[in-house]
């Protein structure tokens, strides 16, 4: 009989916990509860806060943003409190982002991971998380393009971690950033063409 208390088993357990937390489709649930319809048939079809905003319901968008961030933060905080190794914490963080991007409940068609990424960073290293949030918020406010804000926040985070003395998380942050960039591949193409929609645009 396998030893469920072994280090490998514990890593798998926290990976599963992180994935299941991350895969909770916050935006889809809120859209249905608040009578906004099936979020996957609205705007871009994405399940994140930016697409919820396209419904015109700012409250639902804000709650989606908060909920998606909390998924990542809770995965990290639970692992930090109960896991026996920091490797498990990092795996829970990675799995939470993967869960959001590829949730089993939605046929592995999820969001782009920005809010969950920010929640993860706020829980792992609050200062780095706050800087990432500031980059995201300022870019969104003045640039009016959600994807650009996400790409800059994710791209700068590994560098910020090194600068503040948390280079031990550089690899994790880099992998998370790469995943976000891959999820934004179509957005990057539109940014290069100058056709990326502004925040709040209907399509």
TrEMBL record:
One of its GO terms (molecular function) is acyl-phosphate glycerol-3-phosphate acyltransferase activity. It catalyses: an acyl phosphate + sn-glycerol 3-phosphate = a 1-acyl-sn-glycero-3-phosphate + phosphate. The keyword Lipid metabolism applies. SMART domains: G3P_acyltransf (SM01207). The chain crosses the membrane at residues 12-31, 60-82, 88-108, 115-139, 159-182. Belongs to the PlsY family. Probably interacts with PlsX. This is Glycerol-3-phosphate acyltransferase. It comes from Loktanella salsilacus.
């Amino acid at each position: 009989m396998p030893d469920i208390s072994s280090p490998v088993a514990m890593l798998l357990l926290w990976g599963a916990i992180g994935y299941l937390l991350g895969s909770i489709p916050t935006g889809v649930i809120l859209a249905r509860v608040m009578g906004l319809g099936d979020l996957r048939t609205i705007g871009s079809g994405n399940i994140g806060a930016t697409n919820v905003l396209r419904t015109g319901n700012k409250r639902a968008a804000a709650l989606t943003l908060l909920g998606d961030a909390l998924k990542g933060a809770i995965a990290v905080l639970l692992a930090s409190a109960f896991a026996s190794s920091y490797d498990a914490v990092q795996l829970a963080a990675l799995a939470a982002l993967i869960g959001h991007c590829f949730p089993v409940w939605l046929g592995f068609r999820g969001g782009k991971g920005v809010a969950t990424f920010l929640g993860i960073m706020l829980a792992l290293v609050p200062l780095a998380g706050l800087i990432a949030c500031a980059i995201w918020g300022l870019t969104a406010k003045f640039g009016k393009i959600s994807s650009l804000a996400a790409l800059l926040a994710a791209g700068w985070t590994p560098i910020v971690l090194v600068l503040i003395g948390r280079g031990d998380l550089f690899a994790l942050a880099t992998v998370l950033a790469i995943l976000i960039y891959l999820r934004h591949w179509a957005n990057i193409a539109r940014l290069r063409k100058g056709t990326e929609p502004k925040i709040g645009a209907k399509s």
